[in-house]
Design a protein that fits this description.
six-stranded mixed sheet, four-stranded antiparallel sheet
């Protein structure tokens, strides 16, 4: 049996079915992302695991125990919210220590574990600062430290990086994955960001209208989408000869499907093309190798391998 089991988990809000018979097994130490557009049911699923929302049906089991029968505060879960929810009147160290105080951990042990966890997230030198004196990325790490210091069986992350700018968000993705691997905590992330989910996760749970569309490793879901929704949601795609073809798999060649370049956009490390063909408008992504690239209005030939 998996470490965490969601069995036919459902939630209705009046006539609206937010989560529809979701089944999922999560292994110990695994990093799983619930991924989908707004309103797909991913946050509601996380809140049912945490105990903030009561399911309309189904079961949640942790190591065989009925988690739904346990009060949220006693479920042993670490949670990081989108807003970080730090206490503004407490220092970094006091924020991180809060959960340990609630657990009745002795002061000496509390100080030791706070110090170790701040070291883990790279904030040992900031222990005496207040949240208002920290950057967004530093506040995010404090929230993560506060969740990890209680040594949770599962870490729940609800869009924790969405308030950061693009560059810092990418840096924090790398840090978050490194921290998760070093402590080995089973982690469930809720996100609508496809790139973030694919960068961080061992497996994706792609959701749409309360239902699971596909569960699988990021590269499997990307290369072999189970549904048209998954194919479109996990990035740009083309349907050619009945097959899903990712834009980066298409190359310009001397022979192949003929077309005319309608649009060419430079995006730094790659070029984005839209090519008019007898099969319709085809999106092409080619890496910026420094070589001359076809111009708008130019006639080209396209070749690809199936995914």
């Amino acid at each position: 049996m998996s470490f965490l089991v969601l069995e036919n988990l459902s939630k209705r809000f009046g006539s609206h079915l937010a989560v529809d018979n979701l089944c999922l097994g999560v292994e110990k130490g695994e990093f799983v992302s619930l991924l989908g557009p707004s309103g797909c049911g991913k946050t509601t699923t996380l809140q049912m695991i945490a105990g903030f929302v009561e399911p309309s049906g189904g079961a949640v089991r942790l190591e065989g125990r009925d988690l739904l029968a346990i009060k949220p505060a006693r479920r042993g879960l670490g949670i990081v919210f989108q807003s970080y929810a730090l206490f503004p009147h407490m220092t970094v160290a006091e924020n991180v220590a809060f959960g340990l105080e609630m657990q009745g951990v002795a002061p000496a042990e509390r100080a030791r574990r706070v110090g170790e966890t701040l070291e883990l997230v790279g904030l040992a030198a900031f222990a005496g600062r207040f949240p208002r004196q920290l950057s967004g990325g530093q506040q995010q790490r404090v929230a993560l430290a506060r969740a990890l210091v209680i040594r949770p069986q599962i870490l729940l992350l609800d869009e924790p990086l969405s308030n950061l700018d693009a560059k810092l968000r990418e840096e924090m993705q790398i840090e978050l994955r490194q921290i998760q691997r070093s402590v080995g905590t089973t982690t469930i992330l809720v996100t609508h960001d496809q790139a973030e989910a694919m960068a961080l996760s061992d497996r994706l749970v792609v959701m749409n209208h309360g239902r699971v569309e596909q569960i699988g490793a990021p590269h499997e879901a990307y290369e072999r989408p189970a549904t048209a929704f998954v194919a479109g949601f996990l990035g740009r795609t083309n349907v050619l000869n009945g097959a899903t073809v990712r834009p980066e798999k298409i190359a310009f060649a001397a022979s192949g499907l003929g077309g005319t370049v309608r649009t060419r956009v430079f995006q730094g490390n790659h070029w984005l093309y839209q090519v008019e063909t007898p099969s319709g408008l085809v999106t092409v992504i080619r890496q910026n190798s420094g070589e001359p690239m076809p111009a708008e209005g130019e006639t080209v030939r396209l070749v690809w391998g199936t995914t």
